[in-house]
């Protein structure tokens, strides 16, 4: 009986190791590729652990260096655009979304279900459908290839996300607290700012991160609605990797850099992110 | 002054609309109005390259779509891609979740790792797998040949069967962690006593899993499958980067077809009609998902 238990333990750890390997190996390979010399990765048979490391693939993304100078400015500009778009999206949509989420959970008014249904529908419309009329409209307003145009569109992704997630957090706060504050002379808004929001603190942070990641990672809208000036990092990575002859290792380096902000944020705030993911069932 | 203040701050109706107004206006302007506008476009011959020919043509776009064999075959490919992806995501996802629900050293760390593929931009996922599948220097060829499974490096992506398998693999790697996290959180809501009681009654571990665990997590499994199916159906960047729709259009999913027609051929009317017809196919899973989510949220 005891022997069987030990075998089961060993089996469990073996499976756990398999799961870890399956989950991290592809990404680990991307990282290894990004810090390897080209010559080391193009030998057959391939050596999995590089003997020497280099940052030349990263330097190629930031500094002009012979033939790869094409990508230098383009990549730095796209990093700037991505930062501007995702941070603006997050900062603009947070207050708007939080207010709507609060109103639709805490206030007794008829718009309650309107807010929920609108944001649910908005969240479910496939982007490939929405992108067509958005392109036509943004073109009319001369907003194609402008960061402001992309920010507006990204706000429409972020708002439903924020509303659904914040509703979940507001629901966990007892009404008594708010009532007590209001008896003490606080207005609705006062109670929201002084009592409710501080209590949802971690929730608020995780929702902000959700909004940031959604915007930072977004590809389709950015790809269709930008041309050259406003291209974001995902668009550039898409362009690099569909162009023949572009250095794979440089693409790997760009990929690692593009994934660092969302991956690091998600790992740091994993508890909240997982709670948000599983509670709201959003992507 | 005081009455004004009272009207705005203390009237829940007014305050409610005022607080949710900005969000509603933004969503209406950026999502719902364009959607309605594009229904109109789908009944037009709207060609940005030849604006002189623009005209209302009724259902002609839709009629042409049914005859467009490249469109219908892209639908078939998309169904195949999404359904196979969902099946593997479920099997793998539930298996991994069950393991991660057991007690072992480093469990928190391994659970945390699940967030890595989810958080990664999907375009990076696509570029990463394209590099792994590379015919000359890719890790897949190197691994298989070092294991002795293949003798020569293969050009995997030029074979219709393997191209399909490999884009599904790339999709499954990225999406499975979502299933794992969802199933894991459902598993954690099952009280230990329930399983204990089954064990005392002499039920084997497998029987307990099939007869007790699976029915208890069935609602979660359904929601996850629907969501993953919907996301799979919209796959765009993975295909654009890894196969470009080839070889011989076998991996050309419907999102690619819509994009090509609209933004490459500039046939906006036809593209809109294609997008709407495709959405119509998704209406049933969309409504099932929306209803269950709505019900869950209303209970708050």
Task: Write up what this structure looks like.
The complex is a heterodimer of chains A (283) and B (300). By secondary structure, chain A is mainly α. Chain A folds into two domains: 25-58, no CATH class; 71-280, Orthogonal Bundle (MetI-like fold). Helix content of chain A is 78%, strand content 0%. Chain A has 14 helices and no strands. Chain A has helices spanning 2-34, 38-41, 56-62, 69-106, 111-124, 127-140, 147-171, 175-183, 188-199, 201-217, 220-225, 233-242, 248-268, 270-280. The mean pLDDT of chain A is 87. With 300 residues, chain B is mainly α. Chain B has two domains: 1-32, no CATH class; 65-298, MetI-like (MetI-like fold). Chain B contains 14 helices and two strands. A two-stranded antiparallel ribbon of chain B has the order 1-2. In chain B, helix 9 packs across helix 11 (205-233) and helix 13 crosses helix 14. The two termini of chain B are 36 Å apart. The model of chain B has no long low-confidence stretch (mean pLDDT 88). Chains A and B meet through helix 1, helix 4, helix 5, helix 6 and helix 7 of A and helix 2, helix 4, helix 5, helix 6 and helix 7 of B.
CATH superfamily of the largest domain in chain A: MetI-like
| Overall SS class of chain A | mainly alpha
What portion of the residues of chain A fall into strands of 2 or more residues?
under 5%
Largest sheet of chain A: none
Return the CATH topology of the largest domain in chain B. Answer: MetI-like fold
CATH architecture of the largest domain in chain B: Orthogonal Bundle
């Amino acid at each position: 009986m005891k022997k069987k238990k030990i075998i089961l333990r060993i089996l469990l750890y073996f499976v756990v190791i398999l799961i870890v390997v399956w989950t991290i190996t592809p990404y680990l390979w991307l990282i290894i590729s990004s810090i390897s010399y080209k010559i080391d990765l193009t030998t057959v048979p391939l050596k999995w652990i590089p003997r020497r490391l280099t940052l030349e693939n990263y330097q190629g993304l930031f500094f002009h260096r012979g033939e790869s100078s094409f990508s230098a400015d383009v990549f730095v500009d796209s990093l700037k655009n991505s930062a501007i778009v995702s941070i603006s999206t997050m900062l603009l949509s947070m207050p708007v979304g939080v207010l709507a989420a609060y109103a639709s959970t805490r206030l007794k008014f008829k718009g309650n279900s309107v807010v929920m249904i609108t944001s649910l529908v908005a969240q479910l419309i496939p982007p490939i459908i929405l992108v067509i009329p958005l392109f036509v409209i943004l073109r009319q307003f001369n907003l194609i290839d402008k960061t402001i145009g992309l920010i507006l569109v990204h706000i429409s992704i972020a708002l439903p996300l924020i509303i659904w997630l914040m509703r979940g957090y507001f629901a966990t706060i007892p009404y008594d607290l708010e009532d007590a504050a209001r008896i003490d002379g606080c207005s609705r808004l006062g109670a929201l700012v002084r009592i409710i929001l501080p209590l949802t603190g971690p929730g608020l942070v995780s929702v902000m991160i959700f909004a940031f990641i959604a915007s930072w990672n977004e590809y389709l809208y950015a790809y269709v609605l930008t041309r050259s000036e406003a291209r974001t990092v995902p668009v550039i990575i898409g362009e690099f990797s569909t162009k023949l002859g572009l250095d794979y290792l440089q693409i790997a380096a760009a990929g690692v850099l593009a994934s660092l902000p969302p991956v690091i944020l998600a790992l740091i705030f994993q508890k909240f992110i997982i709670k948000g993911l599983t509670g709201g069932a959003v992507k | 002054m005081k009455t004004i203040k009272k009207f705005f701050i203390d009237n829940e109706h007014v305050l409610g609309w005022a607080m949710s107004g900005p969000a509603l206006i933004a969503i209406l302007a950026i999502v719902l109005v364009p959607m309605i506008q594009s229904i109109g476009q789908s009944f037009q011959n709207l060609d940005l390259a030849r604006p002189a020919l623009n005209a209302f043509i009724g259902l002609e776009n839709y009629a042409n779509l049914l005859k467009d064999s490249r469109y219908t075959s892209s639908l078939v490919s998309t169904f195949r891609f999404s359904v196979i992806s969902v099946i593997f995501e479920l099997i793998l996802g539930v298996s991994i979740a069950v393991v991660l629900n057991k007690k072992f050293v480093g469990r928190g760390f391994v659970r945390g790792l699940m967030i890595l593929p989810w958080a990664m931009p999907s375009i990076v996922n696509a570029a990463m797998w394209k590099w792994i599948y590379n015919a000359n220097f890719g890790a897949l060829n190197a691994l298989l040949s070092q294991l002795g499974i293949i003798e020569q490096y293969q050009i995997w992506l030029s074979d219709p069967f393997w191209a399909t398998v490999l884009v599904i693999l790339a999709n499954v790697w990225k999406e499975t962690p979502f299933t794992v996290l969802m199933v894991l959180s459902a598993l954690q809501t099952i009280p230990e006593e329930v399983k204990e009681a089954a064990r005392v009654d002499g039920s084997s571990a497998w029987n307990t899993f099939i007869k007790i665990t699976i029915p208890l997590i069935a609602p979660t499994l359904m929601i996850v499958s629907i969501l993953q199916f919907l996301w799979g159906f919209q796959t765009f960047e993975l295909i654009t980067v890894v196969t470009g729709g080839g070889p011989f259009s076998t991996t050309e999913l419907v999102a690619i077809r819509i994009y090509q027609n609209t933004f490459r051929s500039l046939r906006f009317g036809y593209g809109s009609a294609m997008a709407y017809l495709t959405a119509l196919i998704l209406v049933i899973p969309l409504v099932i998902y929306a209803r269950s989510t709505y019900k869950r949220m209303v209970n708050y």
